Amino acid sequence: MKRAKSYGRHEDIVLRAHIELSRSLTKIRSKETAWLGDRDLTLPQFGILESLYHLGKLSVGQITKLTLSTPGNITVVVKNLESKGLIKSIPSDEDRRIKILEITEEGSTAMKSIFHEHVVNLTGMYDAALNEEEIQILSRLLRKLEKAQ
User: How far apart are CA 18 and CA 33, in angstroms?
Assistant: First the structure.
């Protein structure tokens, strides 16, 4: 197999870390996506439901920032969740142009029934490769990387 071109010792280390981070996230997201698909949810739908379930009512703008999504994508995802009866949107009292999203009783029931299993699945994925101390270190390092951007 042909050896990859070198861009410098430090740069090669950064590229390798970035590739491994991307591959890891892709594999984890793939498993999450399949698991959620079995429950008739997409990853973006789950992100919105999870935010509303844990944080309460939020504006579409707040949801967009929390889920790192785009306004166009959020509109479609919200419409699909509303059609499933899992969330509802209401105009803001302060500004009628702003929509406030709220999880419905049906949405809360769905989240109660799947969220613990979701956490168990994620824990299993991480525990398969890392011990608790390594997971804490990984979390701190990723947070540090995020804050530097």
Answer: 22
Please identify which residue in the block is written with the tokens 């009512």.
Answer: 57
Question: CA 95, CA 56: separation in Å to the nearest integer?
Answer: 19
> What is the total count of domains within the chain?
1
C-alpha 111/C-alpha 116 separation (Å) is: 9
pLDDT in the model for residue 127: 97
Residue 1 lies in a domain: no
* Residue 84 confidence (pLDDT): 97
SS3 38: coil
pTM of the predicted model as reported, rounded to 2 decimal places: 0.88
36 lies in which domain range?
9-147
Please give the Cα distance from 139 to 78 (Å, whole number).
30
How far apart CA 50 and CA 94 sit, in angstroms, is 25
Neighbours of 82 (CB within 10 A): 14
Quick one: pLDDT band at residue 44, thresholds 50, 70, 90?
A: very high
